[in-house]
Specification:
105 residues; mainly alpha; rod-shaped
Length: 105
């Protein structure tokens, strides 16, 4: 008897599920594009530039700070500052050359 009773329309349900899956895939693709999922490869140069800038600024500021401290305690103003600033700049450029000579992955 249960075989003759009309049941839910499976054709309509399948069409709705297919439509829902298509819209879900389109929404996920839009979200991935908006979030920048494809930008991971192109960020390498940007990160390298930021690292080089940080090395340069860090070397100069670190050298100047250490030189200033040496000058305050030893009373050799301004020679400790100048020597350590030059040394920090040299070390920063050495690090930049080392970074730029590495092979990309």
């Amino acid at each position: 008897m249960a075989e003759n009773e009309p049941g839910p329309d499976t054709l309509g349900t399948d069409a709705r599920l297919t439509s829902l899956e298509e819209r879900l895939k389109a929404a996920q693709a839009d979200e991935a594009h908006r979030a920048g999922a494809g930008k991971a490869e192109s960020d390498g140069g940007y990160r390298l530039g930021n690292r080089v800038l940080a090395e340069l600024i860090g070397g100069m500021v670190g050298g100047a700070l250490i030189g200033w401290v040496i000058d305050r305690f030893a009373g050799t103003q301004p020679w400790g500052l100048l020597v350590m600033l030059a040394l920090g700049t040299i070390v920063a450029f050495r690090n930049i050359i080392r970074i730029s000579s590495q092979r990309p992955k």
